[in-house]
Known about the structure:
It is a single chain. By secondary structure, this protein is an all-alpha fold. The chain is 74% helix and 0% strand. The protein has a domain at 27-192: MetI-like fold (Orthogonal Bundle). It contains 8 helices and no strands. Helix 1 packs antiparallel against helix 7 (192-203), helix 4 (107-132) packs across helix 6 (149-179) and helix 7 runs antiparallel to helix 8 (206-235). The radius of gyration is 22 Å and the shape is globular.
Amino acid sequence: MATQGSLWDLLAYGDTGWGDEFVEGAWLTIQLSAFSYAVGFSFGLLGAGAKLSHNKWLNRIGDVYTTIIRALHELLLLLIIYYSGTTALRNLLVATGLFSSDIEIPPFWAAVASLGFIYGAYLTEVLRGAILAIHKGQGEAAKAFGMSGALRFRRIIFPQMIRFAIPGMGNQWLNITKDSALISVLGAFREILLSGKIAASETKEYLFFYSISAALFLCITIVSMLILHRIEKRVTRGVRRA
């Protein structure tokens, strides 16, 4: 084990330390979280639209999606979707005849799609609640002025939905940055947690390297909260607080 004075030397950048591994791991965590959140937001919009639709089949699909995803553990879902979903997509692509049987789905994008699909269920409820918070009269007035459904959504629904949804969306962003560590079980991604685990195993300095991992997650959270606070202030400017 390293002496107390040389602990920080273990974070040197390059072949002599683990600093570059942690930097790369932090960057991968941010990338994975951002892309997964974008995918999740897309699923959230679709899910909220389905649950608010007057079509009973869309309602049922939305209910089944959110119920199953929120009922099962994220790690179990990640494993099921990552492995089964990747295999199903590969078979579908091969069945089209446009791709050969040796096609491979990039692991990074498979993980992004899996995590995004899971968080889409949580964002569905956040966005659905935000849409319901908008007074119905505004949509009816826009419709009376001859606005199309797409135009009403873009100019009336979406801006106000974002304003009401920002707190919940912010919480889900913080959750997804932490749950991005779940992909470490897949073994294909060296994000923050796996970087800390490997460094700790190699040096036997478990407390030190896991503390570094925790500090990096804390830094991401603090920076995210500052950015979210700025965004919330911007989207709520001119709005009187109760």
